[in-house]
Amino acid sequence: MDATDPTPDGTPPAAAAAPRQERRERRGRAALVVALRCLATITVLVSAYFLLPFTRRDVDVRDLVVGLSAVTAVFALQIRSIARSAHPRLRAIEALTTTMPLFLLMYAATYFVIEETTPGSFSESLTRTDALYFTLTVFSTVGFGDIVARTEPARVLVMTQMVVNVLAVGVATRILFGAVEAAVRRQTSGTRDPG
């Protein structure tokens, strides 16, 4: 087949390639926008973690429940937006870069406040960076052992993070993939422009 021969549907090759090229360009622009929004979201969340004053003198389980509820609500909104998105895979990446940092920073802030409120809750005094480091080692299951929870409330908090980590990695990931698959199926069935 020559470059000037029409495609099987009779469209000249250049005309058939133009819509594909346009779709690739739209996807590329969408990926750039998502990457910039992800970077902005992570920057805002990390900046807020390091700049907001965490001065509460009393931390209780209600704070953790409220925080986890907020993360769950954000996640639910993200799932809804994936289902409606023209680019569900990109939207899922964006959902992860919103929800996971929020979840991890919430635990880091809680560890920081507990150590500030009850010194000695951990094997060493925690700065915000130390609390974030500890949160990430618990999340990644690395567990270097350089920082450990010493008091019962701190250990209970670490155990809740471990359980929620398993749920976040297992259940939440499955829900994300399911939302993406459903959106892609809807697009390929013709209810939305796959662009």
Number of domains: 1
Q: Counting H and I runs of at least 4 residues, what is the number of helices?
A: 5
Topology, number of strands: 0
Overall 3D form: elongated
- What is the arithmetic mean of pLDDT? 84
Structural Rg = 23 Å
CA distance, first residue to last residue: 28 Å
N-to-C order of helices and strands = HHHHH
Q: Which bin fits the share of residues in helices?
A: over 70%
In the CATH hierarchy, what is the architecture at level 2? Orthogonal Bundle
Determine the strand fraction and express it as a percent band.
Answer: under 5%
- The CATH topology name reads Helix Hairpins
Please identify the top-level CATH class: Mainly Alpha
The main pleated sheet reads as: none
Provide a descriptive summary of the structure in words.
The chain is mostly helical and about 200 residues long. The protein has one domain: Helix Hairpins. The protein has five helices and no strands. It has helices spanning about 15-50, 60-85, 90-115, 130-140, 150-190. It is elongated, with a radius of gyration of 23 Å. The relative contact order is 0.11.
TL;DR?
It is built from five helices and no strands. The chain is mainly α and 195 residues long. The two termini are 28 Å apart.
